[in-house]
Structure formats: structure tokens, C-alpha cells
């Protein structure tokens, strides 16, 4: 992912801020209230959007992990780590909003339902991935070892997505289609417009966070290298 120029970064920021306000307007004012769940259904827009971005973040991690196994570079190592950190944050938000949804829809904060369990496993895998990245030793070896965890987590993403279709659960709703044949289900047109706009906004937020995270991490790396050189000179 190429770092943006100062102008491009400002443009993204200018687009992101109003997009967030528009999303809030669409969610709480423009979109209709669902008949059965009422106003509590509106958390659905945050839940689905953050879940999508979490999956996107982990696919990015998987891509850079595969590239790292082929040829480790500091740039690939940094990008995979930043995307994983963002993915863990958004996965946590997904679980929290899902629990709020579950309390309103199922009258329970948690149930051992296939989608919830697979998302929880996905979160644990990437927390382990981030811990492995903090191990001491040659960064090339750590990059390759952590890449294995990153790829395993990426493989788990399609399992999370297909869980409610493969096991045909009756609790978790299928947004686009219903059942194994993907027939029926879906959302109302106005709700769909709001959902798609929210997904686009959170995706833009992910891109912005990635760019800023990579920039900060590269600055830290430059400082560490400069500090090491100073220590070597003083020691000699």
C-alpha cells in the first residue's frame, strides 16, 4: 500500500469526516425503523460494517503474510501488523455490537452459535498473531513464523462467513439471502442504501487508519535504527 501524499491524505480526511456524519444521519433519521426490533435494530448497520472491515483487514494480513513467506521485507511485515491490529479492533467492536443485537433479538448476550464461535476463534488467532510478532529474535524469522498464524486466520475468515449457511442456524440472520440456496431474506431498499453507505464509510476509515499506522510505524523504525547507530558509536 503506497503512502499518500499530504494532499491525498487531506482529501481522504475531508471525505471521511462528512461521510461519517452522513452515515449517522442515514442510520438514525433517514432509514426506517424495523417493525419487530424497533430502534435497537439500527445497531445492525454498525455491526455489519465493522464485520466487513474486520474481514477485509484479515484478508490484507493474509496477502502480506503470503508475500512475507516468499520474501520477507520490513514493509510487508509492518503492513501485515498494522492491518492485523485494525482487524482485532474491528472484530472486538463486531462482537460487542453483536452481543447488544443478541440481547434485543434473542434475549441473551451470548450463545454458542456457529457464527459467534468462529468469530471468537478468529479474534484469538489474530491476538496470538500479534503476540508472536512481539517475540525477541531476528525480525526475518519472526516475520515468517507470525505469517503462518496470519494465513491460518485468513483461512478462517471464509469459515466465519459461511458458518450460518453451512450449519443453517436459525438464530443468526443472513443479510443477503437466506438458507443454503441463498433465496429470500435480504433487507429493505432504504435499509440497504444505508448499509452500503456505512460499509463504504468504514472501509474508507480502514484505509485511512492503515496509511496513518504505516506512517507511524515507519517513523518508529527509523528512530530505533538511529538509536541503535548512536549506541554502537558510543560503545565503540
UniProtKB/TrEMBL annotation:
Keyword annotations of the record: Cytochrome c-type biogenesis, Membrane, Transmembrane, Transmembrane helix
UniProt membrane topology term: Multi-pass membrane protein
Segments passing through the bilayer: 12-31, 43-65, 77-102, 114-132, 144-167, 191-211
Domain Cytochrome c assembly protein: residue ranges: 14-172
Domain of life: Bacteria
Pfam families according to UniProt: Cytochrom_C_asm
Cell compartment(s), UniProt: Membrane
Family classification: Belongs to the CcmC/CycZ/HelC family.
PANTHER family per the UniProt record, alphabetical: CYTOCHROME B_B6 PROTEIN-RELATED, HEME EXPORTER PROTEIN C
Identification of the protein by name: Heme exporter protein C
Source species: Cytobacillus mangrovibacter
Classification lineage: Bacteria, Bacillati, Bacillota, Bacilli, Bacillales
